[in-house]
Design a protein that fits this description.
568 residues, mainly alpha, three-stranded mixed sheet, 24 helices, 4% strand
C-alpha cells in the first residue's frame, strides 16, 4: 500500500503530453473496427488520468504549503499548461463525436459521455487559451492573497481559518473584536481583491463574446457541464427560496436573537453565536474527531468502513490549519491510485466535524466509483456531487454524541438550522453572479451595492450599519472563493442542500432505509444526468415547486419544536 507522501511527482514534458494526446486523435480517426476504436479510447482515458494525477499532486502539495518554492513553480506550470492540454483533449472529443462507432460507444459506456462531450465542445475555443491561462493565474493570485493573511489580534497574528474560533467566542466584546480585526484585514486588502475580480469579469466576458455568446453566462453554464436544467429553472428555484426558505430562516434568526438577548436584525458578530453559552464544539481534538469519524463509518456500513480505513492508512487526509496553507477545504481525485484526497483546515469548531463528513461524502462517492471507465463517469456534475457530501453530513448527525459529547443537542439543532440558513446565502451568491456577468461594466463599488441589495432580499437578518469593516458595508461576497475561482458553481450547494434535507427527513423515519436510498443514488457515479439519477433513487427534484415548500415545512416544524431546555 502506497501513502500520499510516497506518490511520485515529476514535471512531465508539455510537448510530449500534447503529442501523445494528439496521436490518439489520429488513431481514433483511422480505426477500422470498434475493437480498435475502443482500445484507443481506453488508452487515451488512461493517459488523461495520469496527466490529471500529476496536476492534482502538484496542486495539493502547493496548497499544503503555499510557501514551498518547488511546488509553487509546479502549480504555476499546470496553470499555464492545462488550457493547452485542454485543446488536445477537445480534439479527441471532436473525433469521438464524429466517430462511426459512436452507437457502439454509447451502448457500452452510456449516452452521458456524448451528452457531456457536446457541452464540452460548446465550452472551449482555442482562441481563448491565452485568456484561460490568465484566468487561472488571477484566481490563484486571489487564493494566494488569502493564504498569506496574517490578522493581528490580541497581540498575535492568525490565518483567516485560525480566526474562526475567536469569531464564535461566547464573550460579546471578544467576538466583536475578532470580527472587526478580520474585517479590517479584508478591507485593507480590498483594492487587490477588487482589481483581481474586475480583471476576471472582463476576461470572462470577452471569452464568452469571442465564442458568439451574449457574454459570459452561457459559457459559464457550459463550463459547469450543466446538462439537465437551464437558467430559467434556476431563476424559478431562486424565487422558491425567497418564498419558502427565507421566512423559515428568518424565524430561526429571530429565535436566536431572543436567546442571546440582542436586537434584531443582528450584526454579523451576534449572528455568528447561536447560544449564549457558545456554539457546539467537538468533544476533543483532531485525533478525537478522526476516532469518532472511524466509529461512524465503521457502524454506518461495510462499504464506508473499508473506505475510511483506506483513507487513513494511505494518509489521504491533510486536515490541520497551518501557516502558509491555502484556505478552505476540498476533496479531489488521484486517478492513478484510484483514491480520493481530502484537504481541510481544522480550527476547533463545529465545522471540523462537518468537514470530516462533508468532504468524506465526496471521497466515498469517488472511492465507490473508483474503477468506472471512462474516468469522466466516476464523478457526476457538481450539484450531484454536493448531494453526496451534504447528505453524508446528516447521516453523521446521528452519531453526534460521539463527535460532540455534551454539545450533541446543540449540534443537532444547529445543523438543521444551518442548512436552512445557508440556502438563502448561497442563492444570493448565484443571483449576484448573474447580475455581475449581465453587467460586466459595473465598477467595484457598484458590485458591492448589488450584493448589499441582495442581502436585503435573501438575508434580512443582518444589520448593515458599518459597525464591522467590510462585512457591514455589503462587501463580504469577496471572501467566497467560488465567486473568483469557479463562477456559477455556488448554487450547486443550494440544490444539493435541498436534496440533503430530503435525506434528513428520510433518516428521521428509518436510518437503514435512508442509507439504502443514499447508496442507490451514490453508486450511480456520473453515469447519468443529475435529475435522472435522483429519479432512479426515488428522490424529488429541487426544481419541483413543492420540494422546497415541503422540506421547509418539515424542517421549520422540527426547529420550532426542538427541545432547547437546559441550554443557555
Amino acid at each position: 500500500m502506497i501513502t500520499f507522501d510516497e506518490m511520485k511527482y515529476e514535471r512531465p514534458d508539455l510537448t510530449q503530453m500534447q503529442d501523445e494526446l494528439s496521436s490518439y486523435v489520429k488513431d481514433l480517426q483511422a480505426a477500422q473496427s470498434y475493437e480498435q476504436a475502443r482500445d484507443i479510447f481506453l488508452r487515451q482515458d488512461n493517459a488523461v488520468r495520469h496527466i490529471s494525477t500529476l496536476n492534482t499532486l502538484a496542486q495539493i502539495r502547493h496548497d499544503i504549503n503555499t510557501k514551498d518554492a518547488y511546488y509553487k513553480a509546479e502549480n504555476e506550470f499546470w496553470l499555464a499548461a492545462s488550457p493547452k492540454l485542454q485543446q488536445a483533449q477537445q480534439d479527441f472529443t471532436d473525433a469521438l463525436l464524429a466517430s462511426p462507432y459512436r452507437p457502439d460507444f454509447e451502448k457500452e459506456f452510456g449516452n452521458i459521455v456524448f451528452l457531456n462531450a457536446e457541452i464540452a465542445k460548446k465550452a472551449f475555443s482555442a482562441d481563448n487559451i491565452p485568456d484561460m491561462q490568465k484566468e487561472n493565474q488571477l484566481a490563484q493570485d486571489y487564493e494566494n492573497l488569502l493564504a498569506s493573511a496574517q490578522v493581528p489580534f490580541e497581540g498575535k497574528t492568525y490565518t483567516l481559518s485560525q480566526m474562526t474560533p475567536f469569531k464564535n467566542d461566547p464573550d460579546d466584546a471578544r467576538r466583536l473584536a475578532a470580527w472587526k480585526a478580520e474585517g479590517q484585514w479584508y478591507k485593507d486588502h480590498q483594492p487587490q481583491m477588487d482589481e483581481i475580480y474586475d480583471q476576471l469579469v472582463h476576461l470572462r466576458d470577452a471569452m464568452g463574446r469571442r465564442m458568439g455568446y451574449e457574454g459570459y453566462t452561457t459559457l459559464g453554464y457550459y463550463r459547469m457541464d450543466r446538462n439537465c436544467y437551464t437558467k430559467e429553472d434556476l431563476a424559478k428555484f431562486r424565487d422558491a427560496v425567497a418564498k419558502y426558505v427565507v421566512p423559515v430562516a428568518e424565524r430561526v434568526y429571530k429565535a436566536q436573537a431572543k436567546r442571546l438577548g440582542v436586537s434584531y436584525p443582528m450584526n454579523f458578530a451576534d449572528a455568528a453565536l447561536e447560544f449564549r453559552s457558545g456554539n457546539a464544539k467537538p468533544a476533543g481534538d483532531a485525533d478525537d474527531i478522526i476516532a469518532a469519524g472511524t466509529k461512524f463509518y465503521d457502524e454506518l456500513s461495510p462499504e464506508t468502513s473499508e473506505f475510511f480505513h483506506a483513507m487513513k492508512d494511505m494518509k489521504l487526509m491533510n486536515l490541520l490549519s497551518t501557516e502558509g496553507k491555502a484556505g478552505g477545504g476540498y476533496c479531489t481525485d488521484l486517478g492513478d491510485y484510484h483514491m480520493p484526497f481530502i484537504f481541510a483546515n481544522f480550527n476547533g469548531t463545529q465545522g471540523d466535524v462537518e468537514v470530516i463528513t462533508h468532504e468524506a461524502g465526496h471521497a466515498f462517492e469517488g472511492w465507490l466509483n473508483r474503477n468506472r471507465v471512462p474516468m469522466s463517469t466516476a464523478w457526476p456534475t457538481m450539484e450531484a456531487c454536493e448531494c453526496h457530501s451534504m447528505s453524508m453530513e446528516f447521516f453523521g448527525q446521528e452519531w453526534a454524541d460521539d463527535f460532540f459529547g455534551k454539545d450533541a443537542r446543540k449540534y443537532r439543532y444547529s445543523h438543521v438550522a444551518g442548512a436552512i440558513r445557508f440556502i438563502p446565502y448561497g442563492t444570493a451568491v448565484d443571483e449576484f453572479q448573474h447580475e455581475i456577468y449581465a453587467h460586466p461594466q459595473l465598477t467595484p463599488r457598484q458590485r458591492h451595492d448589488v450584493w448589499k441589495k441582495l442581502c436585503g432580499k435573501y438575508m434580512p437578518w443582518y444589520k448593515l450599519d458599518g459597525e464591522i469593516p467590510f462585512y457591514s458595508d455589503g462587501e463580504h461576497w469577496q471572501l467566497k472563493h467560488h465567486i473568483y475561482s469557479l463562477p456559477f458553481y455556488y448554487i450547486d450547494y443550494c440544490l444539493a442542500q435541498t436534496v440533503s434535507l430530503e435525506f434528513w427527513a428520510l433518516i428521521q423515519k428509518d436510518l437503514k432505509a435512508a442509507w439504502q436510498t443514499y447508496m442507490a443514488y451514490t453508486e450511480q457515479g456520473g453515469s447519468d444526468t443529475w435529475t435522472n439519477m435522483l429519479k432512479k433513487a426515488g428522490l424529488a427534484s429541487p426544481f419541483d415547486g413543492n420540494t422546497l415548500r415541503d422540506i421547509c415545512e418539515k424542517a421549520g416544524k422540527y426547529l420550532d419544536e426542538f427541545d432547547l431546555s437546559g441550554i443557555e
